[in-house]
Amino acid sequence: MRITGEWIARPETQAVCAMLTDAGHEALFVGGCVRNALLDAPVNDVDIATDARPDRVIALAEQAGLRPVPTGAEHGTVTVVSGHVGHEVTTFRRDVETFGRHAVVAYSDDVRDDAARRDFTMNALYARPDGEVLDPLGGLADLRARRLRFVGDAAERISEDYLRILRFFRFHAWYGDPDEGLDADGLAACAAHADGLETLSRERVGGEMRRLLGAPDPAASVAAMAQAGVLAHVLPGAQTRALPVLVHLEGGRPAHWLRRLAVLGGEEAETQARALRMSRKESRALVTLRAEMAGTRSPAELGYRFGGDLATDIVLARAALFEAPPPEGWERAVASGAEAEFPVRAADLMPDYTGPALGARLAELERRWIESGFALSREALLA
């Protein structure tokens, strides 16, 4: 079996492969690029595995006129820049001892050793420069069946890096069969080792939750997280009831992870934002979402006050929370509000109003204008 795609045929990528194979070394595409190519999904990053040691990779790159960057040489990884495109080239490795993420590894000449230390079988797929697929662990059958399985013993893979617990649910949301459920052995191992999530940095946890909640339909995976006791370690107090309702109401709209996070509830928005290391913009959006989805502002007013995107999130989240469809015509109302511009300025009311009285009068006129459907003119409001 062979994979194809613009990414694999790029001269820049083939040049990196040729610098290795021309010197008698292996050059195998590995992981996400192979998996996604087999699924006809976009390929963003190109990773290459090789039997060449890092210092050899550096020397070969320089000889070929390419630029090597030892981004992770201590882990066997050299980024080779070819035509302004970076390619991570990593030497085959096998684990000697594992201490969480800080494993003691030895370089290997055997791709099977390299495959055995990867997380999931569908990520242990390789391809030669001509696209020929190598499947040392049976990952191709799992990928075709949309079956997510840990490589070897699930508990061992998790103990090597507890982030793999979250990756298990995230990968199922993206690539698994929602009708088949999650692999029982993997799910049991995740539940048994959920306490290990407390050792992870908040940045890594936040990154995984973004990717999980950004899946087309993460509801089944998030529900499984809750049942396994995993969700409570990441989002204490979160409830999953509204999430499948929200996904249904979204109707194929682009996934927005904050919108999904908002309906899960749990701790106060500010606390969640800190725990997931959100940006200030994301934090403010979550605070607004959580407050307004339980409020009563109309879709039009939401559009006016918060803009079309956030207003859409609020309307959908509110509907999911109350398990009721949004009001008829809400999308037009949001768009109308987002385009509306209040016609009265503070200067229009001065000097008759100043200080707190000025603010109160502006708010009163703004309320009348909103209630008119943004129809009242400046003259009518000031009359």
Helix content: 40-55%
CATH topology term of one domain: Beta Polymerase, domain 2
Number of strands: 9
What's the overall geometry? elongated
Structural class: alpha+beta
Radius of gyration: 27 Å
How large is the share of residues in beta strands? 5-15%
The level-1 CATH class of one domain: Alpha Beta
Q: Averaged pLDDT, please?
A: 94
Number of helices: 22
Distance between the termini: 77 Å
In terms of per-residue confidence, which ranges show pLDDT below 50 for 5 or more consecutive residues?
Answer: none
Largest sheet, order of strands side by side?
3-4-5-2-1-8-9
Reported for the largest beta sheet, the result is: 7 strands, mixed
CATH superfamily of one domain: Beta Polymerase, domain 2
Can you name the CATH architecture of one domain? Answer: 2-Layer Sandwich
Oligomer: single chain
What characteristics describe this protein?
7-stranded mixed beta sheet; alpha+beta; Beta Polymerase, domain 2; 22 helices; single chain; two-stranded antiparallel sheet
Structural summary, described in words:
The protein is an alpha+beta fold and 383 residues long. 50% of the residues lie in helices and 10% in strands. Among the domains are: 1-145, Beta Polymerase, domain 2 (2-Layer Sandwich), CATH 3.30.460.10; 346-382, no CATH class. It has 22 helices and 9 strands. A 7-stranded mixed β-sheet has the order 3-4-5-2-1-8-9. A two-stranded antiparallel ribbon has the order 6-7. It is elongated.
